[in-house]
Amino acid sequence: MKKLIKNNVHWVGKVDWDLKKFHGEDFSTHSGSTYNSYLIQEEKNVLIDTVWAPYAVEFVKNLASEIDLNKIDYIIANHGEVDHSGALPELMKHIPNTPIYCTANGVKSLKGQYHQDWNFKVVKTGDTLDVGNGKKLVFVEMSMLHWPDSMACYLTGDNILFSNDAFGQHYANDRLFNDYADQCDLMGEAIKYYANIITPFSSILRKKLEEIIALNLQIDIIATSHGVIWRDNPMQIVQKYIEWANDYQEDQITIIYETMWNGTKHIAEAIAEGIREKAGDKTMVKSFNIATTDHNDMITEIFKSKLVVVGSPTVSNSILHTVSGFLHFVKEMKFKKKKAACFGCYGWSGESVKVLNKNMEEAGFEIISEGFRNQWNPDVDQIQKAFEFGKSLI
Description:
Helix content: 25-40%
CATH class of the largest domain: Alpha Beta
Distance between the termini: 55 Å
Largest sheet: 7 strands, mixed
Oligomer: single chain
Strand order of the largest sheet: 1-2-7-8-9-10-11
Radius of gyration: 24 Å
Strand content: 15-25%
Structural class: alpha/beta
Number of helices: 12
Shape: elongated
């Protein structure tokens, strides 16, 4: 069932309450998600994006109940990833000759995934498409936000920016608009989405935001591909992106660790207390066990942090594989202007701190200490030394 966005623009997407994992198992979606597709019905009928493949038949059936599919004049594929384009094969069975507007890389993506030579029309930044009644779509390439094929488009007259993956969240909300959402939940999902998906491309995003602002467009609505549609003060999320893209950090220190027999855990707790003692209440200190905490949530906390303290016991002259795997994820994020320190327990050889330091340095963190090593289970004296180590980090 379509839902009105503004004038002759309707939402025709899918709310997915059941979604708990995305990008395979790589992204946790505790709040579900939406796959936002839009139908513009002016003198020309335009469909912007589709939905994920599991809902393709449902999507096409619902769309056909709202409009004769043969009356769709144009399809816009802002992004070829399957959560946006997954229903295209099912739709194109009915209207195989309908032109699909996308970037040059969009053609490569769609052909590569679906092996169909549809009627592609390549567009680039500044190109326009007349939809009638004095309105047109203006295309803006958004390469590497977050795929090479990504783009956005802007509907003149109604002043709607169809932003694709930018400004979105994995957040199910059948009332669609940001003013209907729980604001704490919404912004929590928005920063998680940015931290885990957009962070590696922050430098590109800064330039693209400058480019969009320079266009001096009046934006009344930001219609995303996932999550809420921003109609109440839509530029608030743009301002947040400007803030987040600028090597973001809060007054927060995050401790992440894994432990075998709780020695490294006890050290982590003592370090946290030392940090709190020295830093005072103004600094937020959070501690997470890598083995028991959602990895995307931890990435979000690291994104907010100025200092990250990482711990692992020594195993086979190295670190636990759970820590190693998570630090690979951290490295992928390409964080900037953050500091790190490391710690760990050992029984025999004690290489974990050295390995951790190397991993964090390779991930772009400034190492501010040689680290803290403890042999065997920490006694009262070693716990006190870990406490002092925590204080020294401030």
